[in-house]
Design goal:
The complex is a heterodimer. Chain A is an alpha/beta fold. Chain A is built from seven helices and nine strands. Chain A has one domain: Rossmann fold (3-Layer(aba) Sandwich). Chain A is about 40% helix and about 15% strand. In chain A, the strands form three sheets. Chain A has a five-stranded parallel beta sheet with strand order 6-5-2-7-8, with helices on both faces. In chain A, α5 packs parallel to α6. Chain B has five domains: about 35 residues, no CATH class; about 160 residues, Carbon monoxide dehydrogenase alpha subunit. Chain M, domain 1 (Helicase, Ruva Protein, domain 3, Orthogonal Bundle), CATH 1.10.8.190; about 160 residues, Rossmann fold; about 60 residues, no CATH class; about 300 residues, Rossmann fold (3-Layer(aba) Sandwich). Chain B has 29 helices and 24 strands. In chain B, β15, α20 and β16 form a beta-alpha-beta unit. Chain B is globular. The N terminus of chain B is likely disordered. Classes of the chains: A alpha/beta, B alpha/beta. Chains A and B meet through α4, β6, α5 and α6 of A and α13 and α26 of B.
Chain lengths: ~180, ~775
């Protein structure tokens, strides 16, 4: 499977494409370097399960270790609340995307703009278009995706991966953040 | 010089010497020369130009700023390009990414509006030829006085006969030419001006749609605002496949009505089945409820490949571009009937039917272009009757064993999934089928949009779509439903009954399910949403492919939405207005609420009526499977009237949303018409164009978007009850923005008092007044200075 091709074959954006996260250390360094990261979790995150572990549990661990506020979209909140994790906000994906393009927006806590937005679990084409909006209209913001497919409009994306490799990468990121 | 135009007469005199006076550069405008039967004085904006309503558009766009979602980093529209527009770069012509996105939206809206207007023109021309220009307009007998609310509002004329619509379409065509010219290189460069023109295209689109539907309702005897319009059969399972079967696809109904007439006049209706897909099917059942609807646009491939149709007749719009090849595969002759979609076929319009039928039956030709609906009626029927025994329903779908054999060719490259718009797990299902388990393929059938991209992508040439449909053969046989045929306009009396409760908020809103079938998870979601809102006593409207999808699901008692809920425009009704062009009756109903219930002047008075609708009428459009450019222009027509539209996740590909910011208090001030004060009206409706990720998110958003600043406390409490209840059930927990939506203590629903008051206390909420809201300073009854 080609690593750095759009997962949806025809959704090719143009000259500016995401850099590959080829190993967990890269994602780890990006998260550590960010002063104000935020994570946006779509409903797809609820549906993934690898070797008996739900993706959402991995994301909760990541958010806790990285002290990353989480915005949940659609009906994802319930899954987080059931696991005793309170998301920072519940907001539709286009809404949070829109706010991130506003340089004057000081974030959910009203303190400061975000400098890294981590996306995971939105429908592929919806995430694609929202990341495109951010690529073009939020130049101060870096974006990263944690999905198992390549999202060319992010600043950084995993390559197209098998679920097993992807799970291993996510575990790697979470474990590294704990160091 | 005297300039004679349909919409006005201008007399310009350069210099005139007479006994009375000496004139120089005298210009007199007299207005339209019409058969005047309407006593209402002309409003300020009859036949608006590209810029007449610009200030209204900019008011909306100030509140709902575009959130751009470029579908491409480049512009490739002229030979300077491709131009890279990333990183704030400008194109060779100087265009920015924001302007380029709005320009693309305008292009889409122009395509959509032109399509409806051209459809209206062809239909009107045909009906005038057939019935005469003096054929009276009649959309609802004595129950409808305001027969053409959009035409009256936009053009300032009251049409009486079919011929009166000629000048309306002249106007639409002129505006569309102007609008399209705006997208040329080196014209508009400002994104918001592009957006204003998108709204203009949308408004024109609704006028064009209104003309088309009123013309066909009046001349073809469709149901006339009838809440009890007949139920018709829907679904592949309703077709008697032992009979010769004719399939019509498209939107322009005359060829289909001629087929029915030919059968009826020869007493052959029971000898053949007339079936349809997409809007022609809907309109055909308005002509004869004995015709059958197979399904929405996404049913084309699966129905054709089933081999059931013996003859396929296409007209215009939403027809697969490969329909000729698909027809040839099942040995079914194809008849193209529109100059807009000739399919490369020989023109047999002027040949005698005997010859054409003989050529079809002998196999000498596989398709023909016939631009005469009457001749199409005869050729289609005679060919179907003659060819059916020979074809023996030759189908393209594999048997179970063939399916397994085909699945074994799969190498697991996953290109099928990567081509699927809904990212369906096709390769897993094919892999399982290769082992003899076809349940995965069977499951895919429900979510499949029928585009066929999976098999185009397959390097092993596996007919992926066909094996999905073959695996679901039992399901297709069971597709047997009932749909209420399109009733057309809303009666004036219905508007009078619901106007008050709607404006006061006691009926929580109008929710219109419109548009195409590019659904993220199949038709079922539309049906479920319709039933939920009807159950909650909203007025639910349906049209086009969404109207069909709404009927393709049964509840536990085995009934479809149309069998459970009444077809009247009332709380808890599900109103199928008809085909795509019938969407005009939904915007028309909102306009009629302002005109009939609130008695606002209608004639050429767009801004005031839109201001009324925006601030008072809790209407929301849902285009859950919006795919086409027509869906874009339909949405734009709703936006200009201040009616929000919710689309599914694929809707972000329309390149921009129009989103409000509930966190910016300063964005939500309105004039209080009583005092002239600018007062906080609250973030309602929060968005004008919104893409939801899931059905659940859409439903919650719809409930929120029906709120308007004018809601009474009782009405707001009802709307809040629905919003909070849906949020709790579908999303989980209390919504985070309740404090922004409660204006006064009296707004709080009694059953939720404790939970809401707790939030209000936490958010340090304070009461604010309910204004008499308007965005227009001229609507202030008592100015501040006075």
């Amino acid at each position: 499977m080609p690593l750095a091709e759009s997962w949806q074959t025809a959704e090719i954006p143009g000259p500016k494409k995401a850099s590959l996260i080829i190993k967990p250390d890269i994602a780890d360094a990006i998260i550590r370097r960010a002063k104000r990261p935020i994570m946006i979790v779509g409903y797809g995150a609820v549906e993934y399960e690898v070797e008996g572990i739900k993706l959402i549990e991995c994301l909760i661990e990541l958010a806790n270790k990285g002290k990353i506020p989480v915005v949940v979209t659609a009906s994802t909140a319930r899954e987080f609340l059931n696991r005793g994790f309170s998301p920072a906000a519940l907001m539709p994906a286009v809404d949070i995307g829109n706010r991130l393009t506003d340089p004057a927006w000081k974030g959910l806590d009203g303190k400061e703009s975000y400098d890294l937005a981590i996306f995971v679990g939105l429908p592929y084409s919806m995430e694609w278009t929202i990341l495109s909006g951010l690529k073009h209209f939020a130049p101060y913001l870096k974006t990263m995706t944690l999905d198992c497919v390549y999202q060319p409009n992010a600043s950084w994306s995993f390559p197209n991966s098998t679920i097993k490799d992807w799970a291993a990468n996510l575990r790697g990121i979470v474990e590294n953040l704990g160091d | 010089m005297v300039e004679l135009r349909r919409d006005s007469v201008n007399v310009k005199i350069k210099e005139l010497n007479s006994d009375i006076a000496h004139f120089r550069d005298l210009s007199i405008t007299i207005g339209a020369i019409t058969k005047e039967t309407w006593v209402e004085p002309m409003g300020p904006t009859p036949y608006p130009s590209l810029t007449t309503l610009r200030s209204w558009d900019l008011k909306l766009l100030e509140r709902y700023k575009p959130f751009y979602l470029p579908f491409c980093d480049l512009c490739c529209m002229c030979t300077y390009g491709k131009c890279d527009l990333t990183g704030n770069k400008l194109g060779a012509c100087g265009i920015s990414m924001a302007a380029q996105q709005s320009r693309t939206v305008l292009l889409a809206a122009c395509i959509g509006a032109s399509t409806h207007t051209a459809h209206a023109r062809d239909l009107l021309t045909h009906l005038i030829e057939r019935y005469g220009e003096d054929h009276p307009i009649n959309v609802g007998e004595l129950n409808v006085d305001i027969e053409a609310p959009l035409t009256r509002l936009v053009c300032g004329i009251k049409p009486v006969n079919l011929g009166d619509f000629e000048e309306v379409l002249d106007y639409c065509e002129k505006q569309l030419t102007q609008l399209l010219s705006v997208t040329h290189t080196g014209q508009e460069g400002n994104n918001l001006d592009f957006e204003s023109k998108v709204f203009h295209a949308g408004m024109i689109d609704h006028v064009g749609m209104e003309v088309a539907d009123i013309a066909q309702i009046s001349a073809l005897g469709f149901p006339k605002s009838d809440p009890e319009a007949s139920l018709a059969d829907l679904g592949l399972g309703t077709v008697d496949i032992k009979k010769p079967v004719i399939l019509v696809i498209g939107h322009n109904v005359p060829p289909a009505t001629e087929i029915i007439d030919y059968l009826k006049t020869r007493d052959l209706m029971s000898e053949a089945e007339v079936t349809g897909i997409c809007c022609t099917a809907l309109d055909m059942t308005r002509y004869s409820a004995k015709a059958k609807i197979i399904g929405p646009i996404s049913w084309q491939l699966r129905y054709v490949r089933s081999g059931v149709p013996d003859v396929i007749v296409i007209d215009e719009q939403c027809i697969r571009a490969d329909i000729l090849q698909e027809a040839q595969h099942i040995h079914a002759p194809l008849i193209a009937t529109s100059g807009k979609n000739c399919c490369g076929l020989p023109d047999r319009t002027h040949d005698v039917p005997d010859e054409i039928v003989a050529d079809f039956v002998s196999g000498k030709i596989t398709g023909a272009l016939i631009l005469d609906p009457v001749k199409v009626g005869e050729v289609a029927v005679r060919t179907a009757l003659a060819i059916a025994p020979k074809r023996e329903k030759h189908k393209l779908l594999p048997t179970h064993d063939e399916l397994i054999k085909l699945a074994k060719k799969c190498t697991g490259c996953v290109l099928c999934r990567r081509a699927c718009p809904n990212d369906l797990p096709i390769s897993y299902a094919v892999k399982a089928a290769a082992q003899g388990n076809i349940s995965g393929l069977d499951e895919l059938y429900d979510d499949c949009v029928g585009c066929g991209r999976c098999e185009s992508a397959c390097p092993q040439k596996i007919p992926v779509h066909s094996i999905i449909v073959a695996a679901a053969e039992k399901k297709t046989r069971d597709e047997s439903y009932r749909i209420r045929t399109g009733r057309g306009a809303i009666q004036d009396i219905e508007i009078r009954k619901v106007g008050g409760p709607l404006v006061l908020g006691e009926i929580p809103g109008i929710v219109a399910f419109v548009g195409c079938a590019n659904f993220p998870k199949g038709s079922r979601e539309v049906a479920e949403m319709c039933m939920e809102f009807a159950k909650r006593r909203y007025i639910v409207c349906t049209s086009g492919c969404s109207a069909i999808s709404a009927g393709m699901y049964r509840n536990e008692e085995g009934k479809t939405a149309y069998e459970i809920y009444p077809g009247s425009f009332e709380a808890g009704g599900i109103v199928n207005v008809g085909s795509c062009v019938s969407n005009a009756h939904i915007s028309g109903a909102a306009i009629k609420i302002a005109s009939i219930f609130a008695r606002r002047p209608l004639r050429g008075n767009y801004e005031e009526i839109a201001d009324y609708v925006y601030n008072r009428v809790g209407a929301v459009g849902v285009a859950w499977g919006a795919m086409s450019q027509k869906a874009a222009s339909i949405a734009a027509g709703f936006w200009r009237l201040g009616i929000p539209v919710v689309v599914g996740p694929h809707g972000t590909k329309y390149r921009r949303m129009l989103l409000g910011r509930s966190d910016k208090e300063q964005d939500w001030y309105v004039y209080d018409a009583r005092t002239g004060e600018k007062v906080y009206g609250g973030p309602v409706p929060e968005h004008l164009f919104f893409a939801a990720e899931t059905k659940e998110e859409a439903m919650v958003m719809v409930a929120k978007l029906t709120m308007r600043p004018n809601d009474t406390s009782k009405g707001r409490a009802i709307k809040l009850t629905n919003y909070i209840d849906l949020h709790k059930r579908l999303i989980g927990g209390m919504p985070h923005d309740v404090h922004l939506l409660v204006r006064k203590q009296a707004d709080i629903p009694l059953t939720m008092k404790e939970d809401i008051e707790k939030i209000l206390k936490e958010m340090e909420w304070t009461e604010h007044e309910i204004p008499d809201p308007t965005l227009l300073s001229r609507m202030i009854r008592k100015s501040k200075e006075a």
